[in-house]
Write a structure and sequence with these properties.
alpha/beta; five-stranded parallel beta sheet; four-stranded antiparallel beta sheet; 8 helices; 12 strands; globular
């Protein structure tokens, strides 16, 4: 049953960054997470390595000398579905939303903590391992919460919790992308499609309802985390 308790060890992680000191820091931080860390200082070489080395995860810097990081992210997404974690010195929430919409799974803002980076890498590898390893588990257990995606039932300590159809749609999308930061527009389009309206307001209401029903303490949520001004992230194991 999900979630998997152990983080799968990656064979290869690719780091695309033009700063040698950053590559060194990332390489040292990920020694216990991957068998091998490949490095590239340019977008062109990074794309070639992504195709040839077949990494399980890519750490991508936005400020590359030969291409815009957003374009590189889109190019990567044209041939690989592995997690992409972006390193960026840009702090704008609009920039973060733009890169997530371009296909990135998560971001870490420079200067960054190596502990935070490692935690986010492990979380993405767990998510990718559960999704790509053939795990078809329809039942998810988180503490005393039991979610059955086939029968569309949720129980906490044996007591059933009722969700509306829209709440179910939102929860299923969260679970399918667990560990991934999802923008307001991604969530809104996935659940409401072409409906018009204020995405943030819709989500604020429905996320609030889900938290009241699923979180032990809705004021301090552990499952549905807010990514300020960007969106939300669903955590199966309370990852940071």
């Amino acid at each position: 049953m999900l979630p998997a308790r152990d983080t799968p060890l990656a064979d290869v992680i690719l780091v695309i960054d033009d700063e040698p000191q950053i590559r060194r820091v990332v390489r040292n931080a990920l020694q216990g997470v991957a068998d091998r860390v490949e490095e590239s200082a340019t977008a062109r070489e990074g794309l070639d390595l992504a195709a040839s080395a077949q990494p399980q995860l890519i750490v991508l810097d936005l400020g590359l000398p030969d291409a815009d990081g957003y374009d590189v992210c889109r190019d990567l997404r044209s041939f690989t579905n592995v997690p992409i974690i972006v390193l960026s010195a840009r702090h704008s929430d609009r920039e973060k939303e733009r890169l997530l919409d371009a296909g990135a799974d998560d971001y870490v803002t420079k200067p960054f903590s190596t502990l935070e980076l490692t935690a986010r890498v492990r979380a993405q590898l767990r998510r990718a391992g559960a999704k790509g390893g053939g795990r078809g588990d329809a039942v998810i257990e988180i503490a005393d919460l039991r979610i059955d995606l086939v029968s569309r039932t949720i129980k906490r300590a044996g007591e059933e919790i009722h969700l509306t159809p829209t709440e179910w749609s939102l929860l299923r999308y969260f679970i399918a992308h667990a560990g991934q930061t999802l923008t307001h527009s991604q969530l809104f389009n996935a659940v409401w499609g072409s409906a018009s309206g204020d995405a943030q307001q819709y989500l604020r209401v429905y996320v609030g309802q889900l938290r009241r029903k699923l979180e032990p303490d809705p004021v301090r949520p552990k499952l549905i985390r807010t990514e300020t001004a960007v969106g939300y992230r669903f955590e199966l194991q309370g990852d940071a």
